[in-house]
Amino acid sequence: MLHEALQEQCRKARIPVDFTRAYWTPPLTPRLAYETERDQIEKVLGLKSLVSLTDHDTIEAPLLLRDTAETAQMPISLEWSVPFQGTIFHLGVHNLPSAQAQTIMDDMAAYTQSPNEARLLGLLALLDSFPDVLVVFNHPLWTQSCIGVHRDEHVLQRFLSSAVQFLHAFEINAARSHKENRRVEELAARWNRPLVAGGDRHGCTASGAVNLTEAESFCEFVSEIRKDQHSHVLLMPQYTEPMSVRTTRTLLDVIRHYPHFPSGSRRWDDRVFHPGDDGSADRPISSLWKKPPAFVERVFSCLRLVESAVVQHAFRCLFPDSEGTDRHKDHSSILVATETVSTEAFL
Fold first, then answer.
1. CA distance 146 to 5
2. Residue 70 near residue 119, CB atoms below 8 Å
3. What's the rounded mean pLDDT across residues 209-215?
4. Distance of CA 11 to the CA centre of its chain
5. How far is CA 70 from its chain centroid?
């Protein structure tokens, strides 16, 4: 319904907005995202937090956070979109060395613009050569079919056959379905790789999975995964909710108005960016109008009705979680929490 509404607006607008080329950013600023994860870990769990925040194909957020004393040791991390034989894989690259981070980013961008398998393996080998860098295969089975990105089993197998030696772990993704994560567990076991928790949190609610560790620093945590092959994943109560409920909650976070947030993060159309047709810099679509079009806002008003407790209860009844979480009971490295919250990437 939302997709059809946006397409209708494209057809009606005096200034056409091509939503297939637009992209959006989460409501929380880097600082707010960090504080959300830190507070929930430290105040609810009573544990020291080690947080690694990632954006798609950019290290801007961790670099900004490094400007303050409290977050000066924030790992320089990103989620790298890797084109490979007609599909796209996502790799979580955590804790880049600060002196080489920008050069590595430039090399990654060059590969993305002109994919070449030999160049890819060279970049992965370079990342692997840094002992404090962690490379995680994020949601390896997600096909992104909603935006026309597909993959078959053969491409995945070819990628893993070539690159698995440089991949240190596979991700249990708190935003994906139980069924998909169960298949990822099986895939990781076949390739002899540990599992680590990933949030993929694009809204305001904390992720549904964390890693528990005795490490005192992020570098020590990386060593646990890379050298010891040692990982404990904790699943949170929100992860046990039906996928429809989790997805809807994120959508509501995305379209919600936040009057007390910093400028540029308040309205949904401040957070959606559109590429310039003349090669100019991307700009928020709020710059194209005085207020969001009435047609789109009517659709969003209908969607916001889902925030009602009554409607959410109906959702849970209509779409129960038939998979459950007891499938993890035989896996000593995966625990199910009864009450807790989580961090964006790692604890």
1. 16
2. no
3. 89
4. 31
5. 23
Question: Counting Cβ atoms within 10 Å, is residue 63 exposed (0-12), middle (13-18) or buried (19+)?
Answer: middle
Buried b (16+ CB within 10 A) or exposed e, 236-255: bebbbbbbebbebbbbbbbb
Q: Is the dihedral of CA 213, 215, 218, 224 positive or negative?
A: negative
User: What tokens does 23 get?
Assistant: 């992209």
The domain ranges of the chain are 2-22+246-318, 27-238+329-336
**Pick from 157-161, 238-242, 255-259, 268-272: least confident:** 238-242
Q: What is the pTM of this model?
A: 0.82
Cα 300 to Cα 26, 74, 252: the distances in Å are: 17, 36, 9
The set of residues, in sequence order, having a beta carbon less than 8 Å from that of 284 and lying 6+ positions away, is 264, 269, 270, 271, 272, 273, 274
Rounded to whole angstroms, how far apart are CA atoms 64 and 156? 35
Written as six digits, the tokens of 192 are 């002899």
Other C-beta atoms closer than 10 Å to the C-beta of 99 total: 7
Cα pseudo-dihedral 12, 17, 19, 24, rounded to 10 = -130
Q: How far apart are CA 221 and CA 173, in angstroms?
A: 18
Q: Which pairs from 51-56 meet CB under 8 Å and 24+ separation?
A: 51/343, 51/344, 51/345, 51/346, 51/347, 52/77, 52/94, 52/95, 52/218, 52/344, 52/345, 52/346, 53/77, 53/344, 53/345, 54/78, 54/79, 54/92, 54/93, 54/94, 54/344, 54/345, 55/79, 56/81
- Taking a C-beta distance cutoff of 8 angstroms, is the pair 238, 200 a contact? no
* Both structure tokens of 31: 């600082």
CATH level 2 (architecture), domain 27-238+329-336: Alpha-Beta Barrel (3.20)
> What number is the average pLDDT over the span 12-24?
63
